[in-house]
Amino acid sequence: MNKAIEALLNDQIKFEANASMHYLAMASWADNAGYNGIAEFFYNQSEEERAHMLKLVKFVNERGGTVIVPELDKPKASYTSLHELFADFLKSEMFVTEQINHVIFECLNKKDYNVHNFMQWYVTEQLEEEAVARTLLDKLNIIGDDKSGHYMFDRDINTIATAVDVEE
Ligand code: FEO
User: Fold this and answer.
1) pLDDT below 70 — which residues of the chain?
2) CATH architecture of the domain formed by 3-69+82-167
3) Distance between CA 119 and CA 100 in Å, rounded?
4) Domain residues of the chain, as ranges?
Protein backbone atom coordinates (compact mmCIF):
# COMPACT_ATOMS: atom_id res chain seq x y z
CA MET A 1 0.00 0.00 0.00
CA ASN A 2 1.25 3.47 -0.88
CA LYS A 3 2.64 5.05 2.32
CA ALA A 4 0.89 8.38 1.80
CA ILE A 5 -2.46 6.62 1.29
CA GLU A 6 -1.80 4.42 4.33
CA ALA A 7 -1.21 7.57 6.41
CA LEU A 8 -4.46 9.10 5.12
CA LEU A 9 -6.39 5.94 5.98
CA ASN A 10 -4.90 6.06 9.46
CA ASP A 11 -6.06 9.67 9.75
CA GLN A 12 -9.51 8.54 8.66
CA ILE A 13 -9.50 5.83 11.35
CA LYS A 14 -8.94 8.60 13.87
CA PHE A 15 -11.71 10.80 12.44
CA GLU A 16 -14.22 7.95 12.57
CA ALA A 17 -13.16 7.04 16.12
CA ASN A 18 -13.42 10.68 17.17
CA ALA A 19 -16.92 10.86 15.66
CA SER A 20 -17.89 7.72 17.58
CA MET A 21 -16.78 9.22 20.91
CA HIS A 22 -18.27 12.60 20.03
CA TYR A 23 -21.68 10.98 19.41
CA LEU A 24 -21.37 8.88 22.55
CA ALA A 25 -20.89 12.10 24.54
CA MET A 26 -23.91 13.59 22.74
CA ALA A 27 -25.99 10.50 23.60
CA SER A 28 -24.95 10.71 27.21
CA TRP A 29 -25.78 14.43 27.41
CA ALA A 30 -29.22 13.79 25.85
CA ASP A 31 -29.84 10.83 28.17
CA ASN A 32 -29.11 13.01 31.21
CA ALA A 33 -31.28 15.81 29.89
CA GLY A 34 -34.26 13.42 29.56
CA TYR A 35 -34.24 13.20 25.75
CA ASN A 36 -34.46 9.42 25.45
CA GLY A 37 -35.14 9.31 21.70
CA ILE A 38 -32.23 11.61 20.92
CA ALA A 39 -30.00 9.56 23.23
CA GLU A 40 -30.95 6.37 21.38
CA PHE A 41 -30.26 8.08 18.05
CA PHE A 42 -26.75 9.14 19.11
CA TYR A 43 -25.95 5.81 20.82
CA ASN A 44 -26.71 4.21 17.45
CA GLN A 45 -24.70 6.82 15.55
CA SER A 46 -21.78 6.19 17.87
CA GLU A 47 -21.95 2.46 17.09
CA GLU A 48 -22.11 3.20 13.37
CA GLU A 49 -18.99 5.36 13.50
CA ARG A 50 -17.19 2.62 15.40
CA ALA A 51 -18.18 0.23 12.60
CA HIS A 52 -16.82 2.72 10.03
CA MET A 53 -13.55 2.84 11.96
CA LEU A 54 -13.32 -0.97 12.21
CA LYS A 55 -13.97 -1.41 8.49
CA LEU A 56 -10.94 0.81 7.80
CA VAL A 57 -8.78 -0.96 10.41
CA LYS A 58 -9.52 -4.35 8.85
CA PHE A 59 -8.99 -3.05 5.31
CA VAL A 60 -5.58 -1.53 6.12
CA ASN A 61 -4.50 -4.77 7.85
CA GLU A 62 -5.74 -6.95 4.99
CA ARG A 63 -3.78 -4.84 2.53
CA GLY A 64 -0.56 -5.30 4.52
CA GLY A 65 -0.55 -1.79 5.96
CA THR A 66 0.05 -0.83 9.58
CA VAL A 67 -2.82 0.50 11.66
CA ILE A 68 -2.01 3.08 14.27
CA VAL A 69 -4.73 2.99 16.91
CA PRO A 70 -5.13 6.71 17.56
CA GLU A 71 -5.24 8.84 20.64
CA LEU A 72 -8.61 10.59 20.60
CA ASP A 73 -9.75 14.16 21.14
CA LYS A 74 -11.74 14.90 24.28
CA PRO A 75 -15.36 15.24 23.11
CA LYS A 76 -17.54 18.19 24.08
CA ALA A 77 -19.59 17.08 27.10
CA SER A 78 -22.46 19.55 27.30
CA TYR A 79 -24.76 21.56 25.09
CA THR A 80 -26.91 24.61 25.72
CA SER A 81 -29.63 23.63 23.24
CA LEU A 82 -30.83 20.91 20.88
CA HIS A 83 -30.01 23.27 18.04
CA GLU A 84 -26.39 23.45 19.14
CA LEU A 85 -26.29 19.65 19.47
CA PHE A 86 -27.57 19.04 15.95
CA ALA A 87 -25.57 21.87 14.39
CA ASP A 88 -22.47 20.16 15.82
CA PHE A 89 -23.65 16.84 14.43
CA LEU A 90 -23.96 18.28 10.92
CA LYS A 91 -20.60 20.05 11.24
CA SER A 92 -18.96 16.79 12.29
CA GLU A 93 -20.43 14.88 9.34
CA MET A 94 -19.41 17.61 6.90
CA PHE A 95 -15.87 17.44 8.26
CA VAL A 96 -15.77 13.66 7.76
CA THR A 97 -17.09 14.03 4.20
CA GLU A 98 -14.38 16.57 3.43
CA GLN A 99 -11.71 14.19 4.72
CA ILE A 100 -13.10 11.30 2.69
CA ASN A 101 -13.07 13.46 -0.42
CA HIS A 102 -9.45 14.26 0.34
CA VAL A 103 -8.56 10.54 0.58
CA ILE A 104 -10.31 9.91 -2.73
CA PHE A 105 -8.54 12.82 -4.41
CA GLU A 106 -5.18 11.45 -3.26
CA CYS A 107 -6.10 7.90 -4.39
CA LEU A 108 -6.62 9.23 -7.90
CA ASN A 109 -3.39 11.23 -7.70
CA LYS A 110 -1.44 8.15 -6.67
CA LYS A 111 -3.42 5.86 -8.98
CA ASP A 112 -4.49 3.61 -6.09
CA TYR A 113 -7.72 2.37 -7.61
CA ASN A 114 -8.24 -0.37 -5.00
CA VAL A 115 -8.47 2.09 -2.14
CA HIS A 116 -10.45 4.42 -4.37
CA ASN A 117 -12.96 1.64 -4.93
CA PHE A 118 -13.09 0.76 -1.21
CA MET A 119 -13.73 4.39 -0.28
CA GLN A 120 -16.85 4.59 -2.46
CA TRP A 121 -18.79 2.88 0.35
CA TYR A 122 -17.89 5.83 2.60
CA VAL A 123 -19.01 8.34 -0.03
CA THR A 124 -22.48 6.78 -0.11
CA GLU A 125 -22.60 6.51 3.67
CA GLN A 126 -21.68 10.19 4.07
CA LEU A 127 -24.37 11.28 1.63
CA GLU A 128 -26.89 9.48 3.80
CA GLU A 129 -25.56 10.74 7.12
CA GLU A 130 -25.35 14.35 5.97
CA ALA A 131 -28.92 14.12 4.67
CA VAL A 132 -30.10 12.83 8.06
CA ALA A 133 -28.20 15.56 9.95
CA ARG A 134 -29.56 18.30 7.64
CA THR A 135 -33.13 17.05 7.91
CA LEU A 136 -32.98 16.95 11.70
CA LEU A 137 -31.48 20.44 11.90
CA ASP A 138 -34.15 21.74 9.50
CA LYS A 139 -36.86 20.31 11.75
CA LEU A 140 -35.31 21.96 14.79
CA ASN A 141 -35.16 25.28 12.95
CA ILE A 142 -38.90 25.00 12.33
CA ILE A 143 -39.58 24.08 15.97
CA GLY A 144 -37.47 26.91 17.40
CA ASP A 145 -37.84 27.23 21.20
CA ASP A 146 -41.19 25.46 21.43
CA LYS A 147 -40.96 22.94 24.27
CA SER A 148 -43.77 20.71 23.07
CA GLY A 149 -42.05 20.70 19.67
CA HIS A 150 -38.87 19.46 21.36
CA TYR A 151 -40.89 16.78 23.11
CA MET A 152 -42.27 15.55 19.79
CA PHE A 153 -38.89 15.80 18.08
CA ASP A 154 -37.43 13.57 20.79
CA ARG A 155 -40.32 11.13 20.43
CA ASP A 156 -40.09 10.98 16.61
CA ILE A 157 -36.38 11.40 15.85
CA ASN A 158 -35.63 7.76 15.12
CA THR A 159 -38.58 7.49 12.75
CA ILE A 160 -37.54 10.70 10.96
CA ALA A 161 -33.92 9.50 10.64
CA THR A 162 -34.97 6.08 9.31
CA ALA A 163 -37.28 7.69 6.76
CA VAL A 164 -34.39 9.81 5.41
CA ASP A 165 -32.20 6.69 5.24
CA VAL A 166 -34.83 4.82 3.21
CA GLU A 167 -35.29 7.72 0.76
CA GLU A 168 -31.57 7.93 -0.02
FE1 FEO B 1 -18.34 7.68 9.49
FE2 FEO B 1 -20.43 9.69 9.64
O3 FEO B 1 -18.67 9.43 9.51
Assistant:
1) 165-168
2) Up-down Bundle (1.20)
3) 8
4) 3-69+82-167
